[in-house]
Design brief:
Blueprint (H helix, E strand, L loop, with lengths): L6 H13 L5 H8 L3 H11 L1 H10 L1 H21 L5 H18 L4 H15 L1
């Protein structure tokens, strides 16, 4: 079959679902069409838990999560005529957190930019 994913493609897709999209193991197995024991082996061998934890603190990842949450709250307020103070408060808090994370460039970002620039310069 032409549309069949290779084992390597399945592994990479499962890794994305596990580390970035927070799918459950059962959801990953269903989506990627693999058995749970194979997924468990991939998670253990690839140290996906460490990758998942490190992504949780990455600025870009946090911003992405906050934007998703803000979008959900905004959509809820648009879809229902019953807007409550808690939803408005959440929107304000998410917006403030986004603004806090999105302003300024930290030292790690500067180092990464410098590395990319020197690579380009070479």
């Amino acid at each position: 079959m032409e549309n069949e994913l290779t084992d390597w493609e399945k592994k990479k897709l499962a890794q994305i679902y596990y580390t970035r999209d927070y799918f459950t193991n059962e959801q990953i197995c269903s989506e990627v069409d693999i058995k749970l024991d194979k997924l468990t082996l991939w998670i253990r061998e690839g140290c996906w838990d460490n990758e998942k934890k490190s992504l949780m603190t990455a600025k870009e990842h946090q911003l992405g999560q906050l934007y998703k949450l803000l979008e959900k709250v905004n959509q809820k307020m648009i879809d229902t005529s019953d807007v409550n103070a808690r939803d408005a408060e959440l929107a304000v808090k998410y917006t403030a957190a986004i603004k806090n994370l999105d302003t300024g460039v930290g030292i790690p970002e500067l180092i990464e930019i410098a590395k990319l620039f020197t690579t380009w310069l070479r």
